[in-house]
Predict the 3D structure of the following.
Amino acid sequence: MSTETAPLGDAATGRMTISAIAASIGVSVPSVSKVLNGRSDVAPATRLKIERALQEHNYQRNARQTGTSAAPLIELVFHELDSAWSIEIIRGVEQAARRNGLGVVLSDLGGSHTPDQRWMDEVISRRPHGIILVLSMLSAEQRRQLDTRSIPYVVLDTNGETTVGAPAVGSNNWNGGLSATRHLISLGHRRVAVISGPGDVLCSRARVDGYRAAHAEAGLEPMEDAIRWGNFTVDGGYRHGLELLTRANRPTAIFAGSDMQALGVLRAAREQGIDVPRDLSVVGYDDLPLAAWVGPSLTTVNQPLLEMADTAARMLLGIARGTDPNPRSIELATQLVVRESTGPAPA
Amino acid sequence: MSTETAPLGDAATGRMTISAIAASIGVSVPSVSKVLNGRSDVAPATRLKIERALQEHNYQRNARQTGTSAAPLIELVFHELDSAWSIEIIRGVEQAARRNGLGVVLSDLGGSHTPDQRWMDEVISRRPHGIILVLSMLSAEQRRQLDTRSIPYVVLDTNGETTVGAPAVGSNNWNGGLSATRHLISLGHRRVAVISGPGDVLCSRARVDGYRAAHAEAGLEPMEDAIRWGNFTVDGGYRHGLELLTRANRPTAIFAGSDMQALGVLRAAREQGIDVPRDLSVVGYDDLPLAAWVGPSLTTVNQPLLEMADTAARMLLGIARGTDPNPRSIELATQLVVRESTGPAPA
C-alpha cells in the first residue's frame, strides 16, 4: 500500500503528507488536522474515513515535531483506583515526572480494563508526552490511533495478551508465587490454598503457575480444589477465605493475591476463631506499607511498585524522545518478606 | 490606586489593559503576556517588575475569556501522597472532573505544605480550570499570582490560618473529636488520651478541642499529659501509643487522629500484650475502607472524603464559571462509626 501511494507523499520519508491524505479521500486538510488533534467537531462518518486513511497509509506524525509541541504532561491510567497499591504507583510516576518538569494527568477507568473513545479523544487533544496504563490495556484500534499521533505508551503490570508487543514494565509474578509457596512448603504445610486475582489477568496466572511449580519441585500435588480466582480486594480475600476455612479438611496455609486479600483472609480466620499463624499461615502479595503494621504483620511478596512506576515513566520518556526501548519488556524482581503471619504447619 | 490609573485602562471595566500596564512600566506588551502565561523566557528583574505592576493595578484576566481558553484540566495538589486517605480524595475529584470532561493533574509537594515557584510556573502555563489544594496552602503572593490569571482555587481540609478567606471544603473536626470522646466517656473511660495530627494544622486542633469539650460537658478533667501531637502516619500512632501504654497509670482509651495512627496504636498494644478492646479502647479517624477489615475492626470517625472531594471540585468549577461560591466555606458532617475496637472501661 505504501509503495502505491508514495508518489503522493513526502519524497524524503516515503510517507504521505496530510494534504496528500486529504486529497486521496476528498476531504479538506483542516478536517484531517482536526481528527489528528482529537477535535470532536468533525462529522462521525468523515472522521471514520480519515482515521482509516491515516492508518492505511501508515501516517505517523513526526515524533520530533510532536515532542516539542507536546504538552508537558504524562497520562497515568488506572483501570480502577483503589487502596494503597495505587498510591505507590502514583508516587513513583509523579516523582519521575516531576524530575522531568512534567505534570501527571490521572484517569480512573471506573473498573473497565479498556478506555473508551471519549477518553481517547481527550488524551489526543491534550497531546501528552505519553501514557502509562496500569492493569489496563488499549484495543488494537486505540493503539493504532496513538501510533498515528506519535503518542507513546507503556503498560505497567500487563493484564492480558492483547498488549503483547507493547512496551511493558512488570515484576516477576511467577517467581513471587514460587517463593511464597516454597516458604509454606518448607514450614511443613501440605494443604496450601491460593487465592489469586482474576483468571484472565496474566499476573494472576503467573503466580498460580509459580505455586504449582513449587509443589512439583517438592514432589507434591496441590491440595484438591485449592485454586481460587477472585479480585484483589479485601472483600475478595474475605469471601474466598471464609469458604476455604469452613470446608472439611481446610487448608493450613493460604497464599493470597494481594495484601488487601490477605487482610480479608485474616478477618475470615478471626471470625472462625482460627489463630494466625498457629492454626493458619497467610502470605500476602505486594508488601504495601501497611503489611508491616497489621496484626499479625504479613509475610508477603514484595513488589517494587515505586521502582516499577519509575521505570515505566523513564521508559516512556525515552520513547517520547525517539529512543527504542531495549528491552521492550522489563520484569523487576520480587522478594519474599517473612513476618508474623506464617509459621510451622499445625501438627 | 485604581482610580488614579483608570484613564489608562479599559473605560468599560475601569481596569487597566495589558498594553496600559506595559506602557506604565516601559516594557513590551508581549513581555506582559509571557509573564501572564507563566512563560519562563522573561528576565527575572523584568518579570518581577511586571508581576508587581499587575498586582498594583489589580489586573485580572477576564474570567469569561479565561474559561473558554483554559485547558480542560483541574489541578489536584497534595502536600504528600500517602495511604488510602489520598486515594479517596483522588477518586472524588476524578469522578467530578470526568463528569465535566476534565482531566485531573496530580501533584505531590513531597511533604511541603506550600508549592514552590516552579510548580506555580507550570500550573500557570498549563492554564487549568482551577486548583484544589489538599492539606496544603498558597502564600499570599501565590494567591495574588493566581488571582491575576483568574485561576481559581479551593482548599480541601484547610491546614492553617493563612488560607482564611479562601474557598474551602472540610469536615466538622471539632464535632468528630467531641463524638469520639463522648463515646469513650459513656463507656466509663476516665483516662482517655488523644494522639492528634501536627499542632500547627487546624483540623488537629479542632479535634483536640472537641476532646476537651466532651470532658467539660461530663464535668471531667482530661487525664494529665494526655494530648499528643504527631503526624497522621501509622508510625506516628505507634510511637505515641508505645509511650502512652508503657507509662505508669496508662490510659484505658486512646483517640487517634487517623485510622493509620490507630493501626499504629493497635500494634503498640499487641506488642505490650494489651488486649483491644478488653484492656484498651481505640478510636480512629477517617473511616477508610480498611477500618472495617483490620482486626479488631476500628471504631472511627467517618469523614466523608469522597463527598468532600466532590464538593470541592463542584465549588471550583462554579467559581471557574464565574459564580461566587455561597457559602465560601463548607463543612460536611462527621459521624462516629462504632465497631470492635472500643468497649467498656476495664474495672
About this structure: Chain B touches chain A at residues 71-73, 75-76, 81-84, 86-87, 90-91, 94-95, 98, 101, 103-108, 118, 122, 125-126, 234, 238, 260, 263-264, 266-267, 270, 289-290, 293-295, 297 (CB under 8 Å). The domain at 2-59 of chain B is CATH 1.10.260.40 (434 Repressor (Amino-terminal Domain)). The first strand of chain B starts at residue 73 and ends at 78.
